[in-house]
DNA sequence: ATGAAAGCGCTAACAA
DNA sequence: TTGTTAGCGCTTTCAT
């Protein structure tokens, strides 16, 4: 805790603080000899620049905030890791903001932009509307969104192509011979749900299968929600042979319900989930699942955002649409006898 | 992006910047009328104080850093959540630092203390030595450790009582009638491993069971490590009836090996793990496990650290020793017929 | 109870 | 290539 300042280094090296600053920031306008001498003194004195002074003067915090609904959920953790690694490699820091599923918290974290706690903010939460986010972007705050598309030219977004995702699931199931396929969706208002329903319907059409509203039921992306939704579905209709669950949590709920109802997977019912979480490999039969490139969604967006900060202008590409990939496991494979 | 400054508010309210600052910081030395008028203007102008200026002047960042080995591991995520919630409720922010299992990264993050990026730092990683950490503390930097005890009077620590943890496991197993119990430890140098071995030996003694070195094998806290270690163990000795695994990951490795070797759990072998991760409830039979109070370890330490920052002195309690709790499931319960 | 003024540590115009 | 100087926005003595 010695608290050496730039002026101390400057004096010892017989230069001005400005020159020391130039050396520290890798300016080209410094004589090689001078630079060496200054560096030498910096090392000798173990000088480390004070970040607060630097921030105030340069009007940059070199920090990004990431707002997630819940740090515990592996979905978010993976995205965070992608952001972290990219940001760190570009000399940025990452402030994790856990909104704990509370809208009020999300709004609170937005103020980090206004009060200059961070240079930019990445929202990975669903609850703020496009309009709310757009109005911040309009005011000049750097904002980005992961997980959905926001229709504002100043807001970069990275997300999965959910229409294609759903279609890929249905292709796989129809290939396996299924004609009666149910869709266990998430919250009906979630853009994920809307897009996936769209893809679901498209793929059915392409396969010449009529769409039945009775084969769609909404849950809340949780295991319990999946369990309940599946039971509701089943009470309406008994003859579907496959279920496309909005995520693996809901697929696990289906497993639970099937265990109770003595429905055997995959013989009587094929199941496909989304996210390919670790647990899908530990239940029997293992759950086929669409794996989203979460790490990539985080890292491309962080890169884009930092690039934007540095150029102080919006680069060409704003939307990063990534594709999920089906990982086929036993839950959706018919036995050979079939 | 209007960038209103404290001077703007001051002018409009016909007071000095000092008074506005007093109002903002809840100083008692402001006339009630004046305060009201200033507050009114602050609201009207939607003034939000610039954090950079505030930090520089007050020499506080109101930010804690948490250094973890890997944000993806649920063990760390739970601790982080505890820190986050406590810190936020005390108006602190949390900077997550993912060391990615690299010692060099950990050291890098330590510099956040020196360059005033954060006010204090919580290490949840194992690789920095007590000496290294102590020397920082000695220099006046605020540092805390989660997961192990560091013997320096200025470093608060929260951790699980690993001796008691191991003893509780062995009590449970001997109660079930086991006399030949193996211990699948983690890295042999890890303090967790050392303490648990100590508790393991103590409990055996108390139960009048001789300790056999051949029943101890080391792994690396991973599923694969557990798998390998179990096979090594088994090749040395075949007649143990129970395994205490250093964590649930290693217990999962035991499950994998047992499946291959046709050993039935719990009939031929009882298994107990540590951490009680979610996965323990999805394998069959479910894994009995010691649940550590991770969230609590994070929150008590954050509270302590912030308290220490505010008082600028070390309060009474430095060590927070918490107890794990056994969650008994089928993997360690003998069938009634036994 | 309030204001004036100094300055936290740094960088960036502008001069030289 | 280097130095001088003026702040970045805020808080905090010290007066009053």
TrEMBL record, chains A, B:
Which Pfam family, any one of them, does this sequence belong to? LacI
What residues does the HTH cro/C1-type domain cover?
A: 2-48
Q: Which InterPro entries does the UniProt record give?
A: Cro/C1-type_HTH (IPR001387), HTH_LacI (IPR000843), LacI/GalR-like_sensor (IPR046335), Lambda_DNA-bd_dom_sf (IPR010982), Peripla_BP_I (IPR028082)
Segments forming domain HTH lacI-type: 4-58
Under SMART domains, the record lists: HTH_LACI (SM00354)
Q: Which UniProt keywords apply?
A: DNA-binding, Transcription, Transcription regulation
Q: Name one GO molecular function term.
A: DNA-binding transcription factor activity
User: What SUPFAM superfamilies does the record point to?
Assistant: lambda repressor-like DNA-binding domains, Periplasmic binding protein-like I
**Mind telling me what this protein is named?**
LacI family transcriptional regulator
